[in-house]
Specification:
The chain has 137 residues and is α+β, with helices and mostly antiparallel strands. The protein contains four helices and six strands. A six-stranded mixed sheet has the order 2-1-6-5-4-3. A hairpin with a 2-residue loop joins strand 3 and strand 4. It is globular, with a radius of gyration of 15 Å. The termini are far apart.
């Protein structure tokens, strides 16, 4: 593989997630990718997922089951040659309730130059959980 900067790799992840392109997502992740999703996210999303496939299934695809949501990155902050902090917002809705979701995020990504190695996701989990709650009648 040709060494790339983390921004190019992370941009590919956001595009793959927005289009539901699983093969592209898997191609950019190291097989031993570690994903740390904010504790408090709806099950099975929150917590540590070891391995690219676990992150895809229990992280991103689990989000897609419960939510029609996209990540909108706004600020890209290099933290060194192999780390990138991305700030932005998640926008969408909960599929079951139809309630809107607009939650800020911080994503800290690491790469080995060729693939992404880890993600630390920080978001307001109360907003995610609130979107899943039925409105009082």
């Amino acid at each position: 593989m040709v060494a790339r900067g983390p921004r190019e790799l992370v941009e590919r992840v956001y595009r793959a997630l927005a289009s539901g392109h699983r093969a592209e997502l898997a191609a950019v992740l190291h097989p031993e990718f570690d994903g740390y999703f904010s504790p408090g996210m709806p099950a099975p999303i929150g917590g540590h997922h070891m391995g690219a496939q676990a992150c895809i299934e229990q992280g991103w695809w689990a989000i897609g089951v419960a939510f029609a949501v996209r990540a909108f990155p706004e600020r890209w902050l290099a933290c060194g040659p192999d780390e990138l902090l991305v700030l932005g917002d998640y926008r969408g809705r909960a599929r079951r309730t139809g309630r809107e979701l607009d939650a800020p995020f911080a994503h800290l990504w690491t790469s080995d130059g060729d693939r992404l190695c880890s993600l630390w996701q920080y978001t307001d989990t109360a907003l995610w959980c609130a979107a899943l709650q039925e409105r009082p009648t």
